[in-house]
Amino acid sequence: MEYMIEKFMTKWPKAGMKEVQVIGDLPPLSVSEICSDKLALPQSWSYSVPCNRREISVWFYRPSLKVCELELKRCEDGHLELTSGWRDVVHKENFKVGEVVTLWSFKDAKNRLWLAMHYKVKEFIEGSMNY
Fold first, then answer.
1. CA dihedral in degrees (51, 56, 61, 67; nearest 10)?
2. Class for domain 2-126, per CATH?
3. Phi, psi of 69 (to 5 degrees)
4. How far from each other are the two terminal CA atoms of the chain, in whole angstroms?
5. Tens digit of each residue's pLDDT (9 = 90 or more) over 8-24
6. For 86, what's the count of Cα atoms within 13 Å in the CB-facing half-sphere?
7. Would you say the pTM of this structure is higher than 0.70?
8. Per residue, what are the HEC states of 49-99?
9. In this predicted model, what pLDDT tens digit does every residue of 94-119 receive, in sequence order?
10. Contact partners, residue 10, CB within 8 Å, separation at least 6
């Protein structure tokens, strides 16, 4: 894992990243997640949104290294979902049912929350960013 974080940080040094955390592999993408406006995140990751906030804007690195802004929303049961832009990410990245994606979170020098998603972990680790 430390090697993955190190490689990740060298790919985007201009973001001034700090507090990098590998959230890990999300379960394989389902039909409902591919066709939905939202992506559910692991319950264990709910610490990232302050308790007094129901949603926050996050900057998001797509697998193609394009950046977009998404909303991270806390649901009634406490879990988090990426909303407002997820469908566009799915469409532009051409995600397929059953793909496994890895998600990283980090804060930049201005303490803003960023997420980065990658679905070709082996190529990323080896430094070959072929898409």
1. -170
2. mainly beta
3. -110, 130
4. 22
5. 556 555 555 555 555 55
6. 19
7. no
8. CCCCCCEEEEEEECCCCCEEEEEEEECCCCCEEEECCHHHHHHHHCCCCCC
9. 887 777 777 777 777 777 888 888 76
10. none
Domain boundaries, the chain: 2-126
* Interval 39-73: pLDDT, tens: 888 766 655 666 667 788 888 888 887 889 999 88
CA distance 90 to 95: 5
Nearest residue to 22 via CA among 42, 50, 38: 42
Whether 95 contacts 40, CB under 8 Å? no
C-alpha–C-alpha distance, residues 92 and 113, integer Å: 22
Q: Which amino acid makes up residue 26?
A: L
